[in-house]
Amino acid sequence: MNLRLNANAIITNNHGQILIIKLKKGPFAGGYCIPGGGINPGELSFETIKREIKEETGLEIKKSLEPFGFCELIHYGKKDHRVVLLLKGKGNGALKETEEGSPEWASAEGIEKKLIPFAREAVKIWKEGKNHFKLLDEECLPSWCL
Description:
Pfam families: NUDIX (PF00293). It contains 2 helices and 8 strands, in the order E-E-E-E-H-E-E-E-H-E. By secondary structure, it is α/β, with parallel strands linked by helices. Strand 2 and strand 3 form a beta hairpin. Helices cover 17% and strands 37% of the residues.
């Protein structure tokens, strides 16, 4: 089974809105996700998030990030296991569209309905003060479970 470590974040602005990205690529193109991606060898999780947010949204995160949980995405049929570190932080500023997607600030109320499964569960545990969830096989985000 292949193992991959990722980091994703819930970034809120001064208005309490959450940074989300409307995806342009992959099986969830058109769906919304929270920013993040794979951790490179030698890279710390908070460095990954800052890099990914800059790449995906154009926003520079200058304040500190803190971990709030993790999740496991396991697709037994594809022999893939992702462990995702979940961080939270603050950010403000103009966003720019990238090849990855179209970023926007969205109200935290009812946001889960428009998010892809992984992001929906991450926001849910963040709101509930929990620290872990798992998605198995078909529940997994297919683009991460290949």
